[in-house]
Amino acid sequence: MSRRHYNLPPLTTLSAFEAAARHLSFKNAADELSVTPGAVSHQIKALEGYLETALFQRKHRSVDLTDDGKALYEALSTSFGRISNVLSTIRDRSYGGKVTVGSTTAVAALWLSPAVIRFWRDMPDVNVDQISQDRPFKDRPDVDFFIRYGRDSDPNLSHTPLYRDHLIPVGSPEMAEKLSGAGLEELAHQRLIHLSSEDRIWTTWPEWFQQLGYTGSIPVESRVNSYSVALQRAREGAGLALGWQRLIHPMLQSGKLVAIGPHHLTAPNQFYLVGRPDEDLSDSARALKDWIIQEVRGSSV
Predict the structure, then answer these.
(1) What family is this (predicted)?
(2) I need a labelling partner for 40 at 20 to 30 A (CA). Which of 135, 161, 205, 233 fits?
């Protein structure tokens, strides 16, 4: 048998293992790799034979990683991530400068998209792709960095603080006039528009009231899974939304939404730019990152 330079097993076995370990599912790994679950199982058995150790604890309906499996997955996840970043950087150079930035749909509509337009005016040769989704940015090697409220759990990602927002009740001008000077108890009995999010880090209405000292009940009469929809309902007088003051500044400035004071809460977490370390970013990605940071810090909002 020929001796491999890095003394590695076939890369197909490592790829199958990494996908299965990330999903903790042979079936989901097979779907991702466009092969059958049996093929994934075969590759992992071959890898376990090569290593002479079990990498998975196989249960009736699920699998868990063994200690050896966890160690291998951590090494592969980090290595594959860095390889993906380098390949993306090389592709960026061939396309003359490209960067991909992610955010929630609300952040994209209210802040990021207008900022990208202003960036283009300064650097028209840089191509910017935007990805908007209202779920955590996981397993997205195509994204250079994304805007996130609070820190991400992945220790390999770089975090650059942007700003800390303030949380205020907002509604239509008519609703704001009706509730001028209202106390917490009166606000709690209004129709509150609750946001359901896969990312549990966002502050909710019950948490907002609790932090301000109100311990009464908070009825849930209206629930949405999109912050943009919550703001639209509030604009139309269908209830009160929990407003992120700096994020929705354009809507407050235009009068489409009105803050209902005097109660406000400093957000528990900051907004961050989260993504690859600077040394792994292309020149274009670093340019956009630096531009966003300077624009945020230069704003008086």
Answers:
(1) Belongs to the LysR transcriptional regulatory family.
(2) 135
For residue 278, what are its two tokens? 């600077």
- How is residue 168 written in tokens? 């205020």
The per-residue pLDDT for 284 is: 87
* C-alpha atoms less than 13 angstroms from C-alpha of 87 in its C-beta half-sphere: 9
Judge whether residue 184 has pLDDT over 50: yes
Q: Across the strands, what pairs with 236? A: none
Report how far apart the first and last C-alpha atoms of the chain are (Å, whole number): 66
- Residues with Cβ < 8 Å from 17, sequence gap 6 or more? 43, 44, 47, 55, 69, 72, 73, 76
- Measured between alpha carbons, how far is 187 from 91 in angstroms, rounded to an integer? 53
Whether the predicted model's global pTM rises above the 0.90 cut: no
- DSSP bridge pairs for 65: 56
d(CA 24, CA 65): 8
Residue 300 pLDDT grade (very low, low, confident, very high; cuts 50, 70, 90)? low
d(CA 30, CA 130) in angstroms, rounded, equals 29
> Dmax of the chain from CA atoms?
82
pLDDT in tens, 15-27: 999 999 999 999 9
Helices (H), the chain: 11-23, 26-33, 37-51, 67-94, 105-107, 113-122, 173-178, 184-188, 205-211, 227-235, 249-254, 283-298
- Cis peptide before 262, with omega less than 30 degrees from 0? yes
Nearest Cα to 143, choosing from 153, 125, 155, 128? 128
Residue 108's closest CA among 127, 126, 132, 141? 132
Nearest to 287 by CA among 51, 126, 88: 126
